[in-house]
Amino acid sequence: DAKTTQPPSMDCAEGRAANLPCNHSTISGNEYVYWYRQIHSQGPQYIIHGLKNNETNEMASLIITEDRKSSTLILPHATLRDTAVYYCIVGYGQNFVFGPGTRLSVLP
Amino acid sequence: NAGVMQNPRHLVRRRGQEARLRCSPMKGHSHVYWYRQLPEEGLKFMVYLQKENIIDESGMPKERFSAEFPKEGPSILRIQQVVRGDSAAYFCASSPEIGGERSYNEQFFGPGTRLTVL
Q1: Hey, which of A24, B25, B90, B92 has its CA 20 to 30 A from B111?
Q2: Which of B51, B47, B86 shows the shortest CA–CA distance to B66?
Q3: CA distance B85 to B88
Q4: First vs last Cα of chain A: how many Å apart?
C-alpha cells in the first residue's frame, strides 16, 4: 500500500497556482518525497523531489513541512497541459509505490 | 541524450502466446525497473534489476513472468502463456548508480508498452 494520501481530484483555473497536498505521516527519517505526473496514458514524468528543505525547479516548487509529515506541490502558473494525474511517493527511490494520485484538471 | 526507450509500443497476443517487452535505459543508467498499470489504476512495481542481477522481484507474479537485464542489450520482460488479465500497460524506468553523495534516486520512465491479450 502507498504510504501517502492525496485528494482524488482537484480543479484549477488556467494561469493560477495549483497547490497539490500530500500526507505522509509515516515517512522515515531518510526517505525522500518524490512527485511524478502522468498525462493521459503516457509514462510518468518526474517533477521534483526533496528530503527536508523546500525545493524549486523549472517545473514546480515542493514545500515540505518541518515535521515532514506532509508536503505540497506547487505549479505556479498552471496551463491546460498540466492536466494530469499527480503522484506523491515517499521512499528511497527503488520500488516506488504509486497510490491513486490526484487528478488535476486545469480549466480554461 | 535519448530517454528510456521501450518497444514495441503496442503488442497484441492471443491467449497462450508469449509476450516479450524490451526496455533500453537512458545512457549511463545501470538500474532498470518494471511497472504494470491496469486500466484506471496506479502503477504497480514488478521488478528491479541491475546489469545481470535481479535486485528485487517482490512484485512479480510467481508464474509465467520473468525479467532479465543482460550485460549487453536491453532489459526484457517476458510473459509466457499470456491470459486476458495480463492486458495492461507495462512501463520501464531507469536510474543512474546510487551511492556516495547520491542517496536519493529519481527514476525516468519510458513511454510504455500496451499489451492486449485477445
Answers
A1: A24
A2: B47
A3: 8
A4: 35
Q: How confident is the model at residue A95 (pLDDT cuts 50, 70, 90)?
A: confident
Give B78's contacts (C-beta < 8 A, 6+ positions apart). Answer: B18, B19, B20, B21, B65, B66, B67, B68
pLDDT at A17 over 60: yes
Residue of A92, A95, A100 with shortest CB distance to B42: A100
Cell numbers for B97, please give them. 548508480
Distance in angstroms (rounded) separating the CA atoms of residues B17 and A107:
44
Q: Phi and psi of A82, rounded to 5°?
A: -85, -5
Q: In the predicted model, is pLDDT for residue B104 greater than 80?
A: no
User: Closest approach of chain B CAs to the CA of A56, in angstroms?
Assistant: 15
